[in-house]
Write a structure and sequence with these properties.
By secondary structure, this protein is α/β, with parallel strands linked by helices. It is built from 16 helices and 16 strands. The strands form 5 sheets. It has a 6-stranded mixed sheet, sandwiched between helices. α5 runs parallel beside α6, α5 crosses α10 and α6 packs parallel to α8. The longest helix is centred in the middle third of the chain and has 24 residues.
């Protein structure tokens, strides 16, 4: 399919380019010393991703350890509740081992670390799902694991903090700034700069310096590949729309990868939070502007000094002031429509899905569910496939404390 002059049939052969750019976004804005480390990782990845031994081992891990493929569930009661005739479906990444999509790339990154002879993996986490997934991968492969997490998120996500520690990871509290995801990335990146000879930074989304956005997208593409095949098998046709939440954007790029070359409407959902005022949301693609942070060119929310602005989201995994470079590119060319839902819509979707379908979603995923419900109300017919990126166990204490049980 051609779109705005881009042939999506050959898209993955040309994007990113050799320097890690998706259009004008991406690249590797790091020190000369780290440039060499990035080149080492890129060369190792380009070698290993073509290796039949690596591919066979990763497929075995996904099948025998992760529990893939994850299923698609038809949401009959929620579809009837909306009442427009539009049918809703969810891709169940909450049923992936550890409860979210994050293990898809963490097992790949840890396997790469073993291939490179590294002894430690370093990462940041917001909602804790990436931290749990990487701690799991580190335990599986016998690697040391340091997870950097903001103090605010540690308090909100206590169950995941406990899981990381049980799995043997060292959870390092970050107390600078807003004490959330952006600061955790800062701290993890600083640590990697000091330890890159013996460690690898396993970033938690499709962001950071090249080659991380490409690596994470490739490892996550299993979500979209499975979903496309499963949906056609279930219904005999493609969905009319595909929806996923977007912070950095790993679950979304994984899901979207399977449908970019199809006549399917694709929607990325950002957190509007409390509203459009700067500091009350984390909707970088809707309200941001071009900039550079964490080693890559992106669209970001800026303060009056041009620095990354304070952000907020009810979902710890979405409160990041920028988006992955591929999302920025897809936004600019119009192939994916990026829109927002606020906290209230998200929490309503959280409880509605739980009550009508017996599925408790992660708050991050509830953003996608909320938008899928809104979208269905505007469509006269058709189907919507939503990426349910994770389960809500981690959010129970926070939801009950802040919202009660509705």
């Amino acid at each position: 399919m051609d779109f705005n002059g881009i042939n999506f049939g050959t898209y993955f052969k040309h994007y990113p380019d050799a320097n890690g750019y998706f259009g004008k976004y991406g690249g590797a804005y790091v020190s000369p010393e780290l440039q060499e480390a990035m080149k080492e990782i890129s060369a190792a990845y380009q070698t290993i991703c073509k290796s039949s031994k690596f591919i066979a081992e990763l497929r075995k891990i996904r099948r025998e350890f992760q529990g893939r493929p994850t299923p698609i569930s038809y949401l009959e009661r929620l579809s009837n509740h909306i009442g427009t005739g539009v049918q809703l479906y969810v891709k169940r990444e909450d049923l992936n081992h550890t409860g979210a999509h994050k293990l898809n790339h963490c097992m790949g990154e840890a396997l790469l670390a073993k291939y490179m002879g590294k002894k430690k993996v370093i990462a940041e986490t917001g909602a804790g799902q990436h931290g749990v997934a990487l701690a799991t991968a580190a335990a599986y492969f016998g690697l040391e694991c340091d997870i950097y997490m903001g103090a605010v998120d540690i308090k909100k996500q206590a169950p995941n903090v406990a899981r990381m520690k049980i799995l043997g990871a060292r959870v390092i509290e970050v107390t600078e700034g807003l004490q959330t995801l952006k600061e955790a990335v800062d701290a993890a990146f600083d640590a990697y700069c000091k330890e890159y000879k013996d460690a690898i930074y396993c970033i938690g989304s499709v962001l950071g310096p090249h080659p991380f956005p490409t690596m994470v997208r490739d490892f996550q593409s299993v979500v979209g590949i499975e979903a496309r095949e499963q949906f056609v098998g279930m219904t005999g046709e493609l969905p009319d729309a595909v929806v996923a939440c977007v912070g950095g954007g790993s679950n979304a790029m994984g899901m979207f990868s399977g449908f970019l070359n199809d006549p399917v409407d694709i929607y990325g959902v950002e957190p509007l939070g409390r509203g459009p005022k700067l500091g009350d949301h984390a909707a970088s693609l809707k309200y941001g502007e071009p900039g550079i942070m964490h080693g890559f060119s992106t669209i970001m929310l800026k303060d009056e000094n041009g620095e990354p602005a304070p952000v907020y989201s009810v979902a710890s995994g979405l409160d990041y002031p920028a988006s992955g470079p591929e999302h920025c590119f897809l936004h600019d060319i119009g192939r994916v429509k990026y829109d927002v839902v606020n906290d209230e819509e998200t929490i309503d979707a959280f409880f509605t899905l739980s009550r009508l379908e017996g599925i408790i979603p992660a708050i991050e995923s509830a953003h996608a569910v909320a938008y899928g419900m809104k979208l269905a109300k505007t469509m006269g017919k058709g189907s919507v496939l939503i990426c349910l990126s994770g389960r809500g166990d981690k959010d129970m204490d926070y939801i009950i404390e802040k919202y009660g049980i509705r």
